[in-house]
Specification:
single chain, alpha+beta, eight-stranded antiparallel β-sheet, 14 strands, about 30% helix, globular, disordered N terminus, lipoprotein
Length: about 325
């Protein structure tokens, strides 16, 4: 081989090496439905196809719903609520422990024994009662009325019922993140109905960008109207608000799905939306519900006493304007 041939071969070899060094990870995208809402996954999984990943995700969907769903009559949680069993699985045990830690911050306003109240007000798949007897229901609402002993759920009153809708979706997002990591992903975003867990960078090599919706009543556009964007490279994010799941009663009063377990009534304040970033999506989910249940004044006061918490509040201002509160720890994550 002549010098020119060797030189040309070396150029091609070096070009191939540099091209290999400069190429980024290959991403797989999966979209669909999970937990009855939207599913979106982008991840640099290894040695698998999008079809194989989708099948694994659907198996996780079945596992989560068969454990924690209040809408599936055959789920373990539904059977626990009907006292057909007292055996808990790892999912229910974890969510109950997490609910305890968040509830301790809330002065009793975050409580997963609210299922009878949620049902009475029409947010558990059944029609709302015209005039629910709240005082009688409150007799069997309260986290102190249920505990776990070993792998058994022990109730002080058999009418106590659990509702994990304030944390189970975020928890399932975390399970989904664990799943894609087991498939080798180092960079990913997983999203179930707007609740997110991410790691690393996107296809452009930048932090993942997550939109926070403008919280006007009835905004069902899934991202058409955004108030802010957040950049995130690690952790979970969840947004809670009362601008979708609500109705007006016979007197025209707004009844929102966020309930105060102490009064049994709907919580409606000028705090319209709460976005939380936390190490896990389960924590972000539960904290978001807790802050919303506190109402504007108490939520602002508690956030002020927790400088490490990453929160973004959207509050009703004068007229049709909005006010914002961004905690110090959240400042660097919000995009201009």
């Amino acid at each position: 081989m002549g010098d020119k041939g060797v030189f040309g071969w070396l150029i091609l070899l070096l070009a191939g090496l540099f091209a290999g060094c400069g190429s980024g990870p290959s991403y797989t995208t999966v979209d669909g439905v999970m937990l009855g809402t939207t599913l979106h996954v982008v991840a640099d999984v290894r040695n698998t196809t999008s079809q194989e990943l989708y099948r694994a995700i659907m198996e996780l969907d079945r596992e989560a719903k068969s454990s924690m769903s209040i809408f599936d009559e055959g789920s373990l949680l539904s059977r626990l609520n009907r006292n057909e069993t007292d055996t808990v699985d790892r999912h229910i045990a974890f969510n109950l422990r997490l609910a305890d830690s968040i509830g301790a911050l809330s002065d009793g306003r975050y409580d997963v024994t609210v299922k009878p109240l949620v049902e009475a007000w029409g947010f558990a798949g059944k029609e709302a009662q015209a005039d629910p007897n709240i005082d009688s229901i409150l007799c069997f609402v309260g986290r102190e009325k249920v505990r776990i002993e070993g792998n058994r759920l022990v109730k002080e009153d058999p009418r106590v019922q659990l509702d994990f809708n304030s944390v189970a979706k975020g928890y399932t997002v975390d399970l989904l993140a664990d799943l894609v990591e087991r498939f080798g992903a180092e960079n990913y975003i997983v999203d179930i109905g707007g609740e997110v867990r991410c790691r690393g960078v996107n296809r452009q090599g930048q932090p993942w960008r997550i939109g926070v919706e403008t919280p006007f009543d009835g905004n069902m556009t899934d991202g058409e109207y955004l108030q802010r964007r957040i950049r995130l490279s690690e952790g979970g994010l969840a947004t809670s608000g009362n601008y979708r799941r609500f109705y007006l009663d016979a007197d025209g009063n707004k009844v929102a799905h966020t309930l105060d377990p102490r009064t049994g009534r709907s919580v409606v304040s000028r705090l319209l939306s709460v976005t939380v970033v936390a190490p896990t999506c389960a924590e972000a989910d539960a904290l978001g519900t807790m802050f919303l249940a506190l109402g504007a004044d108490d939520a602002l006061a508690l956030a002020g006493r927790m400088p490490e918490v990453k929160v973004y509040f959207i509050l009703a201002g004068s007229g049709e304007t909005y006010e914002e509160y961004v905690s110090p720890a959240m400042q660097s994550l919000l995009m201009e």
